[in-house]
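This section describes the prediction task in plain terms. A model, or a person checking by hand, is given the sequence of a single protein chain and must write out its three-dimensional structure as a string of tokens. No templates, partner chains or ligands are provided. The sample shown here is typical of the held-out split.
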Amino acid sequence: MTDTDKLLAEKDGAIGRLTFNNPARRNACSYAMWDGIAPILDDFEADPDIRVIVLRGAGDKAFCAGADISEFETERSTPEQVEIYDGAGDRASARILSVSKPTVAIIRGFCVGGGMGLALECDLRISSDTGRFGVPAAKLGIGYGHEGVARLVDVVGPSFAKEIFYTARLFSAEEALAMGLINRLVPDGELEDYLLDYCATMAANAPLSLSCIKTTVSELTRIDGEPDFALCERLVTECFSSDDYVEGRRAFMEKRRPAFRGR
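The expected answer:
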């Protein structure tokens, strides 16, 4: 298997799927995989038929185990290599966070370290009952950057964030749900049907409205300066000025489902 085979993109109706396809290493990301995430998301964002983006791991053993440590000796052993390697990861993270469409992490098995960071960069997280979550940094003597820590604190709060880092242990899907780390917990055998229904619900709604709320939440929780309230208000105005708002009103009066077009 080549690195180009380890990151898969698929379009299925309104769903764009990005799959980490490295099951032999619990779907850990190589440099080439990190570098390939942004172009796939660019394509999904540019396609008006894609309304929801799903990130998942191949197989049923892991979502993603973060970076592929096996290549660190050859790809990440000098300061120059570290800068290049980390740059690819930073670009991938930034693109997941900035893509305007809803993103959902679908989790089976291990979701640890950088893999949990990827899941936290998605808007929503749905896990089967096989999900296992953790950040083993303290077992490796690793420090975590403030941006990644801030995302975890935003999701679970400071006390649970400290517990996750202090213990460095694996948490069950049930524990993750109780902490708010995941949005939904679904029996493994029902996960695929649940996902399709969940995505269909979001895809039926107005894309501009979803993009507006995504940007607004991002602005309200940003850690690098004051929120851009003018941007948030402009997006609200654009919603009210859109063809979709006209369609939504008419569909309501005509007692039918709206057919939103994202404009």
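For orientation: The mean pLDDT is 91.
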